Amino acid sequence: MGNTNRGSSYWVSPEGQKITLTWTADENGFQPKGDHLPVAPVHEYELPVAPVHEYELPVAPALPYSRTGPGYTSTTYSGSRY
């Protein structure tokens, strides 16, 4: 529930044609209307859908984990390095 604003204006084109614009602004946004405004084409066909391939991706085998690097001299954890 919110405010609704409406309005209209007109002007004369260089060719002498009166152009009228009416509009409404509410919770659905700004909605202009006029015979001079373009209209999106209506598609009467179904858009193609990409095929779905069902297959399993290869999974790398799990390798054993071992700590390496400075401060790790044993394969067992002593609880604290300091």
UniProtKB/TrEMBL annotation:
Region of interest: Disordered: 62-82
Keyword Transmembrane helix: no
Claim: rRNA-binding is one of the keywords in the record: no
Coiled-coil positions: none
GO terms assigned for molecular function: structural constituent of chitin-based larval cuticle
Compositional bias ranges of the Low complexity kind: 65-82
Recorded GO CC terms: chitin-based extracellular matrix
Pfam short name (any one): Chitin_bind_4
Keyword field: Cuticle
InterPro entries attached to this UniProt entry: Cuticle_Struct_Prot (IPR050468), Insect_cuticle (IPR000618)
Highest taxon, organism lineage: Eukaryota
Protein name: Pupal cuticle protein
